[in-house]
């Protein structure tokens, strides 16, 4: 496999992974209790987590290296914000950590992968 094909496979796999992250986040949101605080925190979480997939797709369509770097930076910020809201959901006892841990791990992995990609791009 040449470098171009390897890059395409990586980009496609990460596009799928960020999309799956969004879908899993939606399911997590649906599992929150129906309290007012869960609704407010949940919406914040849903906004940031859905932005991860959307901004990564935008990064893949970037018209320049500068635009790619900017979109990748936004994606990292949104993944980190999603992680923050999951920590709040856990610490506020809206959901047990066991229901959040796998998705929190995935957010952390996405942040690490994208941070490395951003560093390579700079």
Using the 3D structure, state the CATH architecture. Up-down Bundle
Number of helices: 4
Q: State the secondary-structure class.
A: mainly alpha
Record field, number of beta strands: 0
In sequence order, what are the helices and strands, one letter per element?
HHHH
Separation, N- and C-terminal Cα atoms:
25 Å
Number of domains: 1
Q: Assign the CATH superfamily.
A: 23S rRNA-intervening sequence
CATH topology: the name is de novo design (two linked rop proteins)
What summary fits the major beta sheet? none
Q: What's the mean pLDDT score?
A: 94
| CATH class designation | Mainly Alpha
Feature tags:
about 120 residues; mainly alpha; de novo design (two linked rop proteins); 4 helices; about 0% strand; elongated
Protein model, in words:
The chain is mostly helical. It has one domain (about 5-120): de novo design (two linked rop proteins) (Up-down Bundle), CATH 1.20.1440.60. Helices cover about 85% and strands about 0% of the residues. It has helices at about 5-30, 35-60, 65-90, 95-120. Helix 1 packs antiparallel against helix 4 and helix 3 (about 65-90) packs antiparallel against helix 4. The mean pLDDT is about 95.
């Amino acid at each position: 496999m040449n470098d171009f094909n390897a890059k395409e496979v990586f980009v496609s796999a990460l596009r799928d992974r960020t999309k799956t992250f969004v879908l899993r986040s939606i399911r997590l949101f649906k599992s929150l209790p129906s309290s007012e605080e869960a609704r407010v925190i949940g919406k914040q979480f849903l906004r940031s987590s859905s932005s991860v997939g959307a901004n990564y797709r935008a990064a893949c369509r970037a018209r320049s290296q500068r635009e790619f770097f900017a979109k990748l930076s936004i994606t990292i910020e949104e993944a980190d914000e999603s992680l923050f809201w999951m920590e709040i959901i856990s610490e506020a006892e809206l959901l047990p950590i066991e229901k959040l841990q796998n998705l929190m791990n995935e957010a952390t992995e996405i942040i690490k992968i994208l941070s490395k990609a951003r560093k390579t791009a700079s």
